[in-house]
Amino acid sequence: MLLNASGCLDATTAPDVARAFDAFVTKTVTPEPREGNRPVRIAETEHGMLNAIGLANPGRERFLAEVLPSLRSLGVPLWVSVGGFAAQDYADTCARLEDVTIELNLSCPNVDEAPESAAEIVAACRAVTDLPLYAKLSPATWDVAHTARAVERAGADGLSLVNTMRGVALDTRLAPVLARTTGGYSGPALKPIALAAVHACRRATVLPIVGMGGVQTGRDALELIACGATHVALGTVLFADSTAPDRVRAELADAAREAGFDDPAEAFCAAHSDTRETVVRIEN
Q1: Is residue 244 in some structural domain?
Q2: Which has the closest alpha carbon to 42: 175, 144, 143, 167?
Q3: What was the pLDDT predicted at 273?
Q4: Catalytic annotation present for 108
Q5: Average pLDDT over every residue of 210-224
Q6: Percentage of the chain surpassing pLDDT 70?
């Protein structure tokens, strides 16, 4: 399944692009409306970009009353990215959602984080909804697999790997470009980090994994699948290439054949030395 990364595509202005995905992931919604951080909020870098948008969104009530009904007209499955600043924030939003998959944004690098652990937030949400819950994790930890196991025990149905990494860009005066100084780093340079996180988490859990981070081509998507991703999401590439969903899908099939596979799915876990045992363990 091919998805967009949360916040990287506005379905209201580009509905045809949104429909090119197998499911559409919304921007993160928080309980109260947020204008986001003050400008400058985006900075291009040599191998990617930094963003410090700050979870700008209309808030839960307007999202439920206006945005979500409008998105349903796309005719594709919807994933709602849920954020907050305490476990109860997440749970209250999850309790109000119906007929969607939920992606819990547990690792936004340019806003203050909830004091509870990722597992505690997942547990709070699991207690109020039976909808599928995906935990979006940060790679900025020594052992992301440990967190993956913890959220699985807490009731997560899947993982989204990875969120952006915190970074800084300086201008010609050697001053930070972003008003907040730091922002979430994404783009091609993030791919090796994403591959490592997906590889580690696949060896630690049987949960489905949405692999994302630096995907520009079908080969990039294939490498995530080889590391253990069951789905792939496109992010930064969408800012520059509206044809990316169809192009990457076509390139993925070609890349699989070049690697000796009749179908991209056959490359699942190919990067693991014990591929056969891993696949059997996951499927069972």
Answers
A1: yes
A2: 167
A3: 79
A4: yes
A5: 98
A6: 95
The number of folded domains in the chain is: 1
What is the CATH number for 9? Answer: 3.20.20.70
Residue 278 lies in a domain: yes
Q: What does the pLDDT average to over 145-153? A: 96
Give the pTM.
0.94
Q: Using one digit for the tens of pLDDT, what is the confidence trace for 28-38?
A: 999 999 999 99
Residue 46 in any domain: the answer is no
229 close to 198: Cβ distance less than 8 angstroms: yes
Query: How many CB atoms within 10 Å of residue 134?
Result: 25
Cα 253 from Cα 257, distance rounded (Å): 6
Q: Structural domain of residue 252, as residue ranges?
A: 2-36+53-163+188-283
Residue given tokens 């007929």 in the structure block? 99
Note whether 272 and 196 are within 8 A (CB). Answer: no
Element (H, E) at 118: helix 118-126
Look at residue 206 and tell me if it is in a domain.
Answer: yes
Q: Looking at 8, 108, 125, 201, which residue is catalytic?
A: 108
> Is the pLDDT assigned to residue 276 strictly greater than 80?
no
2 touches 56 (CB < 8 A): no
